[in-house]
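tool=predict chain=A
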Amino acid sequence: EIKTYGVRGSGAYFDRDCVEFGCNSSCHALWNNDQVIFLDAGMGLRSAQRDIQARQPKDISLLVSHPHHDHISGLLLTPEMYNPQRSIQIHGPPYLRKAIETRFGTGVSPIPIVVLTALKEIEVTDGLFTLGKVMVKPFTAGFHPNVTDGMTEEERVFYQEFGSQGYTLGIDGKKVVYATDMEFDFKFPGKQTPESERIARLQ
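tool=predict ok
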């Protein structure tokens, strides 16, 4: 079962004009019996708290595409992230921890970033790994402009050149491809890119 908890970009807000498409920022979920994998952790993750409490999954995992605020803000505002009875796996692209610390440093957020103790950064070259019964393959989804203040040159180059990490999830012969925020026209105006062609073949 695939469920969407947030689709709005840039930031979450409530207004009558936004109700049709939702008010929360990016968060989707793949529910598989007693397992749930969240795709990005925007403010939709906070809304998913109700389903977590109602369905009580044994395994909770998060796959983060990139560290823009609308994809990670739910990390700090979702009660389940602070549940001492939980062991939640968080996966994301290289340097994700540093990027999150930059965005939610003590000068910005009053909440300690204790959820990062569950964070595992994954290289796109690592190949397949499993989350419960789901096979996951990370890949470089494509260019998306990122703020890289406070990062090393190596970290800065990664986010400037690649930006967003995608995931292919497979279970029981079925496949889901999650690839978001690929703003190729920003870097390659009016051109089809190798990244977009490759992702099209994954579907």
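The CA atoms of residues 45 and 139 lie 23 Å apart. The mean pLDDT is 77.
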